[in-house]
């Protein structure tokens, strides 16, 4: 079986697990799995893992969270909004969704604020850098060609026009 068929099996399988597969796609998956029994075994293992209940380790989560708070305190970041003596800072609801106490939300807001400030500062310096470069460029609005007595000059203007300047004459033109 070619790689395209195996890729199609995995695509259909992922649609099945996420409950997005149509009836036609499920039938196509069954046909492909009959042709490729080795893939059927791999998919069976993946489906078992997908359906397995989440194993939570509250103690480890609590430990890592408290470790983070201690690092923040060591860096001088205000952590008064956190109650580290609280029994569980992270709780798991019956539908396997997590509920995080107020302190973690403060950390999230702090991180977002720091990122926004960094972006604003970077933007300011980029803007200033561009403006300072523009300020150093000489801007000439017009040019002047002059010839001495007894000579003639030929010049091609920026628009492509060819001009003869006679002796003792002067030509002024705008660069635009």
Overview of this protein structure:
This protein is an alpha+beta fold and 176 residues long. The chain folds into three domains: 3-51, no CATH class; 58-135; 142-174, no CATH class. It has helices spanning 3-17, 23-35, 37-51, 58-74, 102-136; strands at 90-92, 98-100, 142-146, 153-156, 162-165, 170-174. The strands form three sheets. It has a two-stranded antiparallel sheet. Helix 1 crosses helix 2 and helix 1 (3-17) packs parallel to helix 3. The relative contact order is 0.06.
Number of individual domains: 3
Radius of gyration, Cα only, in angstroms? Answer: 36 Å
Largest sheet: 2 strands, antiparallel
Shape: elongated
Structure class = alpha+beta
Helix content: 40-55%
> How large is the share of residues in beta strands?
5-15%
Number of helices: 5
Strand order of the largest sheet: 1-2
What letter string, H or E per element, gives the SSE order? HHHHEEHEEEE
Mean pLDDT, rounded to whole units?
77
How widely separated are the two ends? Answer: 67 Å
Number of DSSP strands? 6
Sequence stretches where pLDDT stays below 50 over 5 or more residues: none
